[in-house]
Amino acid sequence: MRKFIAPLLVMSFLAAGASVQAREENPFITSKEIDLIKLLPPPPANDSLQTKAELSEVLALQAARTPEMTARSQADATEEIWRFADVMGVKFKREQLPVFAKFFQRVVDSEGAVVDTYKDVWKRPRPFMVSDAVKPVVKLSRSGAYPSGHATAGTLMGIVLANMVPEKRAEIMARAAEYANNRIIGGVHYRSDIDSGRITGTVIAARLQTRDDFNTGFIAARDELRGVLQLGAQPAEAK
């Protein structure tokens, strides 16, 4: 019997370790609290003039795509706050900002918890699913294209981050816009997907600011960030 004890202990230890490593989503808000059907128009029909015009834009950007644009769109395929590092500076690192990192993971989780439900409602096909001429350069997804989750997340992250560091608001929101636009450059979204995502991200950001748990986390994350970046007290206009 003893010869079976060690393997069982090892298996139990590995299972426990896997459960610790697995990160469960912990959004501040879900689709139960935001009804996008009442906020957004339905996506353009697949055979509409608008979709044809948007497909032409995707193909035009594809033709103009440089290696630098490709690399940028591929890097921005990751939904995480650290994509704003080129705006925030060299001290903007996960290992230096544990409270901030945990807070923003909940912010990003909120995007998926709201948007994924409505992607399944509208089921808009992505450009490469409609035209073989589209050659994506980012990881493919066959979930509904509308609204863009990346555009939602980028806008949401940008607004929250800009409220923490209003001194860099213009640069942060410009970066958020680029982050969203890179989904068109990457070949996986239409313009209206991006526009609806930016609206959705703005709505989620506004709704989050009414929640006590969000505001408590925001203050702690903001203070840690501003301390690491040596920015001092937050300007009065953003308090």
Automatic annotation (TrEMBL):
Pfam families: PAP2. Residues 101-209 form the Phosphatidic acid phosphatase type 2/haloperoxidase domain. It comes from the Bacteria. It catalyses: a phosphate monoester + H2O = an alcohol + phosphate. Residues 1-22 form the signal peptide. InterPro entries: Acid_Pase_classA_bac, PAP2/HPO, PAP2/HPO_sf. GO terms for molecular function: acid phosphatase activity. SUPFAM superfamilies: Acid phosphatase/Vanadium-dependent haloperoxidase. It is an enzyme of class 3 (hydrolase). GO terms for cellular component: outer membrane-bounded periplasmic space. The keyword Protease does not apply. Keywords: Hydrolase, Signal. Its EC number is 3.1.3.2. Belongs to the class A bacterial acid phosphatase family. This is Acid phosphatase.
